């Protein structure tokens, strides 16, 4: 699966959160990225046909941005207005069946974004225009990945964020136990690179055990389902 | 935890401690969490099976 991350951030290079995410996605082969602000910063401007054509080669498109006044920074809206023409989206259905994911970063705590919280509105409500766009375009809208208060995260939280983010970019959705297991097995394979034969064998044994455990979980689940069906 | 899960946690902790890459460390840690989750799900299903098989309704 091929993923394109469209980043909207006026100060991408200066953002610690964005640099962390960038270092993370560099570890994946089938992920490409584009900083929209850099596209608009070019002297010859944005080539709309080129951008439209480039999008076709990807299965999952990610909008990644910090939340500015309950929306994305202006560059994403500009990009959408310019590249997602009515002809491209509605008449030609050019991005139909692709997935649209949102990676939004917040300076405030995620917990504030709920009814009764200091921000009052949920992230789902605030991102509704992007969900509506996905709906109109025939795209599958993925549950947004919210990264809040990165600066306060300890190393354990950053480890978890890294995995959540990489899975959001490249794992099969929904993120069921089976899909997470499949994804982790692939990543474990990649960690063998540059390791001694002994270490590689240890990783292979881990993979075999994980797969056995997963088969056991699936088989027990089937048994439970069968007995439930017999009883009802 | 089953013996297999305990063994997995031990192996993965060693791999994590021996690796310098933050990305690899994160992958090993996530695998530890996954192994524990598998263990929990298997136990829950096993308990439900036992409960349903030994239900007094069937006595």
TrEMBL record, chain A:
Keyword Transcription regulation applies: no
Entries under SUPFAM superfamilies matching the protein: Flavoproteins (SSF52218)
Sequence ranges assigned to domain Flavodoxin-like fold in this UniProt record: 1-166
Pfam families assigned: Flavodoxin_2
Listed GO MF terms: electron transfer activity; FMN binding; NAD(P)H dehydrogenase (quinone) activity
Record bears the keyword Transmembrane helix: no
Keywords, comma-separated and alphabetical: Coiled coil, Oxidoreductase
Coiled coil segments of this chain: 203-230
Superkingdom, taxonomy of origin: Bacteria
PANTHER family hit by this protein: GLUTATHIONE-REGULATED POTASSIUM-EFFLUX SYSTEM ANCILLARY PROTEIN KEFG
Protein name: NAD(P)H dehydrogenase (Quinone)
Automatic annotation (TrEMBL), chain B:
Top-level taxon: Bacteria
Residue ranges with Basic and acidic residues bias: 49-59
Disordered as annotated region, ranges: 39-59
Protein name: Uncharacterized protein
Species of origin: Lentilactobacillus kefiri
